[in-house]
Amino acid sequence: MPSKGIETYSFIKLPNYSVRFSVPGGNVVRTEQDNFTSTHLEVESKDISGLANFTGRFEFVVLNGESQVTTQYVDIDSFTGKLEGGTMLASEDQKTILTDDAIISYGFYGAGHGEFGLTNMNQCYVTAVSRTAHRTWMTNIVPPGGEAEQKPFSRFALASPHDGPMSGLATVFSEEVLKDKDEAIIAVLSEHIPAIGWLAEHVSHSMITKLLPNLIYGLAITQKDPISVLLETGARYFEFRPAHLLPIFENEHKKSRPYFQHACIPGVAFEDFLTDIAVFLDNNPAEHVVVHIRWDNIVADCRKPTTEELDHAFDVAISSATKSGLKWGKHECFKESVATLRADGRRLIRIIEADKYDSWTAQAYATIRADSIIKQFEGMNTAGQEATDVTILQCQATSQSIKEVLVHSVLTANRVNSCLTSTKADLDRHTLPWLRDNAMDRLKAERLLVVMNDFLEGATTEVVMDLNKQRFALP
């Protein structure tokens, strides 16, 4: 009988919370005991009433005891697999939900027929963690006045949203900016983005302009939540590649200022990013954030800010903090004690193109499965950390680097079938437990440790919190 499968995942770290996933004819309830596992469901035509009706509802409900906290759904045609309606039809609408006591993150991937190794099953994940514990996890694990506070800042492990400032498209892709410029914009983007260059050889530029937001969402948008929510979730390390817009994007609607750049695709504006961090730190006086300025793969036409301009941007940001005497510091902060930095107010740390010991390689991460990523983790060791400033453990794949996946993603782009979301949940259930159980034994140097992930959620930050409890318990 016609059917469409859904693989479901959950991570829960809140007393009395559970998640119920349901389809016509059945449901599963998942609790904290089911973390880092998956359950399979099917929307089957035999369970859908009506002779000519093939559409059934997949739904999840987050429960606190018997009370419903949130519910989300999609209506799925069991015959074609098409999504007919619902609340999860676009990745950008699947925002983290903040309640008084919970942070609930979720995602849904609408699968095709399993082309080029991609799954043919829809994917849905839900995480539910404590808002209080995550907002102030540094304060809780390294409390002011405690013995742990005397240890160097480099003892911390930090959660990082991969390309965190790509949490939405800058308004350079709005209709008012693209209007009357489609030919010129596509010509410029084709020079810098291979996927668009390939498409431009086969499809009219005006059609590509209409597809452009979907294309960019599918290939470059790695986060769904604004910076303020990522901070609440527990993010404390951000890489930012600041550069001005391509000249073609500058007009009467957009002033020239640095944005986060994914090649030449702009995300969050630099000043807005820093302001969000300053506000968060001002309201949470024992938390810290590291901003790593880098310019990997920035195109030459996007002007980089000077060191003086960077300094000014940080000065302006901390001037908005009025409660806690916030200051920003540089690389030397890593060697100082947490207590010293807190006492001095230097809780925003900026480093510029620091040396990294990074798990990422183009070959290993061009994958749709966790095996090659975990192999990278297994190849890292304490000796490799010694000559660098930061150790980066990346959990997300870059499946768009697989040629066939890239072409398929370009040709079928919509707001809920990004190849980045297709692998998210399944990778996490393998990579995160491995890091929780093995990172401490393999990476023992007194170096800042960063766990990076796409679509940052509570499971990643819970693993980081566990690592910090282990690291700060050491002499």
Q: How would you explain this protein's 3D organization?
A:
With 475 residues, the chain is of the alpha/beta class. It folds into two domains: 133 residues, no CATH class; 336 residues, Alpha-Beta Barrel (TIM Barrel). The strands form five sheets. It has a five-stranded mixed sheet. 46% of the residues are buried. The model has no long low-confidence stretch (mean pLDDT 92).
Question: Which helices and strands appear, and what pairs or packs with what?
Answer:
Elements: E1 3-13, E2 17-23, E3 26-30, E4 38-44, E5 55-64, E6 67-77, E7 83-86, E8 97-98, E9 102-109, E10 122-130, H1 131-135, H2 137-141, E11 157-161, H3 175-178, H4 182-192, H5 194-200, H6 205-219, H7 227-233, E12 237-240, E13 242-243, E14 259-262, E15 265-269, H8 270-283, E16 289-293, H9 307-319, E17 327-329, H10 338-344, E18 346-352, E19 356-358, H11 362-365, H12 371-378, H13 382-385, E20 390-394, H14 403-411, H15 419-442, E21 448-453, H16 458-472
Parallel strand pairs: 1-10, 11-21, 12-16, 16-18, 17-18, 19-20, 20-21
Antiparallel strand pairs: 1-4, 2-3, 2-5, 5-6, 6-7, 8-9, 9-10, 13-14, 14-15
Can you identify the CATH class of the largest domain? Alpha Beta
Query: Into which percentage range does the β-strand content fall?
Result: 25-35%
Helix content: 25-40%
The major beta sheet can be summarized as: 5 strands, mixed
Q: Count of helices?
A: 16
> What low-confidence regions span 5 or more consecutive residues with pLDDT below 50?
none
Number of strands: 21
What is the straight-line distance between the termini? 61 Å
Average the pLDDT over all residues and give the rounded result. Answer: 92
For the CA atoms, what is the radius of gyration? 22 Å
Question: What is the name of the CATH architecture of the largest domain?
Answer: Alpha-Beta Barrel
Total domain modules: 2
InterPro entries: PI-PLC_domain, PLC-like_Pdiesterase_TIM-brl
GO molecular function: phosphoric diester hydrolase activity
Protein name: PLC-like phosphodiesterase
GO biological process, one term: lipid metabolic process
